[in-house]
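Marked as duplicate of an earlier ticket. Keeping the data here for the record.
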Amino acid sequence: MIKILPLTKTDPAMISLLAREIWFRHYCDMLSNAQIHYMLAQRYCPMLIQSQLTEKNIWWKKLLFDGTAIGFSCCTRTNMPHELKIDKLYIHHDHHRKGYGKMLVDDAVKTMHQAGCNSLILTVNKQNHAAIQAYQRYGFEIIGDSVVDIGGGFFMNDYLMSMTPCV
């Protein structure tokens, strides 16, 4: 049975471990090991996730398959009025191509409406061809480039994608 639930205060360490497993497998051909380590430390520290659980403009969700977390997402309100960003959306590689990513995107659309927003954005690594194609199937369009200096001598070289779901 599949469920999407909000993260609880006991989940951040598990999400951190899941992110580590996903990232080292998925990004090994796109990013250096050093950048993967840097980004995991920067974005998936359990204490950071824990602190974000109390933020009113950040929504962390876990995707459970028979009670085991196999994926997660995090949405944040942006500085633009009425815009929500899917900041993180990952599914464990053993569970790809089963519709779970679409379930998390649909959940993000629901969160978007509940937050009073009307557009959804995300960034995706330009080399992440499978994810780009999936997001396009879900209704996202590439609207620009997003090249960001994230510190430590590292950059994110992404596409900016957007969708405006029907109400």
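See parent ticket for discussion. Residues 2-118 form a domain with the Aminopeptidase fold (CATH 3.40.630.30).
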